[in-house]
Amino acid sequence: MTVRQGLSHSSKPILLLRLPNRILLGKCLKQNQRQKNTLRTNTGTLLSVAVFYLSEVAAAAYFLFGQMQALNPIQPRFTKLFNRQLLKPLNLRAFSSSPDDYTNQSRGGLPRFFSEELPASKGGVVRVQGDEFRHMTKVLRLSTNARVELFNGKGSLVEGCIERIDRTGLDFVALEDPTLVPPLSTQWHVFAAFGTLKGDRADWLVEKCTELGAHSVTPLLTERSPSISENRVDRLRRVILAATKQSQRLHEMILNPPAKIVGLLPLLAQSKLSFLAAAGAPPVVSVLTSSRKESSGLMIVGPEGDFTEKEVNMMMKAGASAVGLGPHRLRVETATMALLATLMLWSDSP
Prior knowledge:
The protein has 350 residues and is an alpha/beta fold. It has helices at 19-71, 78-83, 100-106, 130-139, 201-212, 230-246, 261-270, 284-289, 309-318, 332-348; strands spanning 2-4, 14-16, 112-114, 125-128, 147-151, 156-165, 170-174, 179-180, 187-192, 216-221, 254-255, 259-260, 274-277, 296-301, 321-323.
């Protein structure tokens, strides 16, 4: 850069750029413009992705609305929901057939942890150790006086704080008396032949049953799915506990021991509601419209390759109603989720 004395009356020097510096400045300006164009392009892409996902959510909501109309065409539950003001804050819970106190208690804002033992009353102290202790102190890094909630998986919930922490565990002190919340009014018992599923597909099935609100899951042993390993059962119990905490359930889903079809037959004879997923059967929606709601029911899903004809005849003779889940062949976990979600929505409809 060269400094020259200009012809101006001012005594200040005038700075003039040499030609190479002018070229460099032009390159910088062009690069800046390209960056701006790239930013606009990225912003447009992000907006396009956001619009795509919003359209997917809207399509799913429209499909769910249509299913509810099919289940109850006179006065669908979601009609009032769509007529509400969009900007009005909503406090909704999927499958909210439970009392209001369950909804309020299960949606607390404090971190929630599992403990088989809870304080009997306000001021009581219990010891928290093991995995929950490590989660509280190592993962969430909670310290003394941090407020948390403990639940026992049987409907009891208590709010308190961490009183003391040492190397082996922590002491939790209750700040109020424990609250006992009743279970959901509708209890669905799932019987699914998932013992031979590979990978984590069985974990996914049990996890989603927990999130949807099934009361219990029983591995069903059939001719084409004759066993389930004990190691897998232990793992499934851990999956259930994690899904219970994630979904904020206060009643832990029960994992029953494996059962054979012969042992299922007496339960079918006693149950007033029992549905068997079967190919070629009448659609589940049409069967539900002519069914009466009960406090509990059974749903049965077969293994890969389906039940044998003999097994189907045995269960239907015992009282199971065959229902269809569409024209396509579904995996065990897909059929279980489709049937359970439909039954939960039907139970929750007025």
